[in-house]
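Lay summary. Proteins are chains of building blocks that fold into shapes, and those shapes determine what they do. In this project we predict the shape from the chain. Here is one chain we studied, written as its sequence of building blocks.
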Amino acid sequence: MSEQDRSTLFEWMGGAETVRRIVEAFYPRVLKHPLLAPLFPSDIGPVMDKQYMFLSQFFGGPTLYSDVHGHPMMRARHMAFPITVERADAWLGCMAEAMEEVGLPGDLRDFLLQRLKGSAYHFVNTPEDE
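And here is the predicted shape, written in a compact code that computers can read:
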């Protein structure tokens, strides 16, 4: 693919294959993290599929998530879970490690994480002391 053909973040990061690899590197970290693991079901497969669809769409790829689940409404979908700033930080840390593992260049990784920070902190719905 020529540089001229790469018009979305999704394409810049390597498309569907890279998004899938990130998701597959991300969730083992989440399931081992003491703050995050309790928020996720033991059958993580469906969660991984949704994350793949969402990230594809979020980064400018096909509208996979909306096509299957409707409007993302991510804050509303996450309200049932106690999300603190500390958990948002942990989530972003796991994502950074996953992106590094799959070999995204540092500048691209930093840019993608900056985009995800807005969402991660928007989901915070619980004070730290709870």
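What the prediction tells us: The chain has a mean pLDDT of 91.
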